[in-house]
Design a protein that fits this description.
CATH topology of the largest domain: FAD/NAD(P)-binding domain
Number of helices: 11
Mean pLDDT: 92
Low-confidence stretches: none
Bound molecules: flavin-adenine dinucleotide
Order of helices and strands: EHEEHHHEEEEHEHHEHEHEEEEEEEEEHH
Number of strands: 19
Structural class: alpha/beta
Largest sheet: 6 strands, mixed
CATH class of the largest domain: Alpha Beta
Strand content: 15-25%
Length: about 425
Amino acid sequence: MTASRTVRADVLVVGGGMAGAMAALSARAAGCEVALVRRAPGATALSSGAVGVAPDLSALPGDPLSWRRGPVESARRLARQRPGHPYAAVGEGLVLLPDALDFAVRALDPLLAPMLERPRFLATPTGEVVAAATCQRAAEPGDLLAVAGPLAVAGLRGHLGFDAALVADGLGRHAGRGGPEVRELEVDLPGLDPWARPHELARALEPPGEAERLGERLRAALANGARGAAAVLLPPVLGLSPAARVPERVAAAAGVPVAETLSDVPSVPGLRLQAALEARLARAGVTVLAGELRAAGGAPGDRVEVGEAAILAGSWVLATGRFLGGGLVRHGALAERAMGLPVEAAEGRDAGVHLSGRPATSLTVRDRRAPQPLLSAGLRVDPSLRPLDGRGRPVHPRLFAAGALVGGHEHASDGSGLGVAILTGWLAGRAAAARG
Ligand SMILES: Cc1cc2nc3c(=O)[nH]c(=O)nc-3n(C[C@H](O)[C@H](O)[C@H](O)COP(=O)(O)OP(=O)(O)OC[C@H]3O[C@@H](n4cnc5c(N)ncnc54)[C@H](O)[C@@H]3O)c2cc1C
């Protein structure tokens, strides 16, 4: 296709998830013209509503929740214990983690709750408790250490996607560890479509009167079955747009703070986060282009075509994600898709890790909390986040990588997904913006 326009920028960011958005916004904050190319939503749009930075690896299951180390201290420990982790790879850059997190919270205001010294303890839809660095404001009043009295878990009668009894049972197990006493109740919401998908329910609560109707029903249910509840946990469908203020409106009508649990997929909080990133990029004046960058053999400074635009930029940040985002592909061999860069997995380093001849059971580890060699594959980088070639040298002085594309971490086992995306995105954007 012949380009119908040319976009000139200082920095080209490839990828529109958390890492790409942070890179674009930090380069923009440093005064650069920034173009961002993205193909589609990736893992960020599936995330649960929690911002995982690092778990306290030394925490024991029975310990009081208040003993958990804070996310920044846990990230330092993670870097020491896992030398291949991006928190270790960035070296001194890890000191800037609090600044990067603060930048993200402010950039996305009012979506995210402010950071605390301690983790927030948040319920999943299966009643597990996740310790996260922060979360969306819609989940904040459900932080188990912040609930000042009994917590009610409310299901919507006929809504098949949320089992309040399961959640209440799981959370109740933490009552002796500093968590609240937990009760379960059901709210009757006439007209609720039992087959409605989460985003449809979330949208249905946004128009005037709808959140209030849920709040009034909740108030009645509380009076019958959970008098004295200090907060209520609801399914993760409290509006798609933070501007609709669904949690606040439900709470005002119910007379008690309400929160949503974290989500599994499809995730309303994930969609909310993705929408907030895109709105912020537009407000910041980043030129966002839809399309896929294919630049095998190319390098920063080259003219590349994406859709109908040609882009010229002196620095590039690759933030193309992993398997869900499309940064890595596996067709027998594991490969980096946009530029054909070398991929590293725990099996070793190769220009394409060849997996086709190996039994599937050798690629993953049965313990789901253990590091998974296949799932933590990605690029190896230097402390400036420049991808390295097979000999350990930067591929190009003005090429940077960020987010899930950087190897050595995996959210399901180390809980650092969005934390890595925020820190490496923010650092890569600054590095790409620096002249010379
Ligand atoms: C189901 C699920 C739930 C999760 N929940 C959480 C959670 O609750 N908390 C947490 O901290 N972490 C969570 N994680 C991990 C976290 O979501 C990811 O680590 C993080 O979102 C990665 O962000 P990213 O920007 O690097 O990649 P992505 O969000 O995957 O973005 C990649 C982007 O690159 C684009 N792209 C790819 N190739 C190209 C190309 N060639 N040209 C143009 N664009 C391209 C994609 O279209 C996409 O826009 C979860 C992950 C999953 C899968």
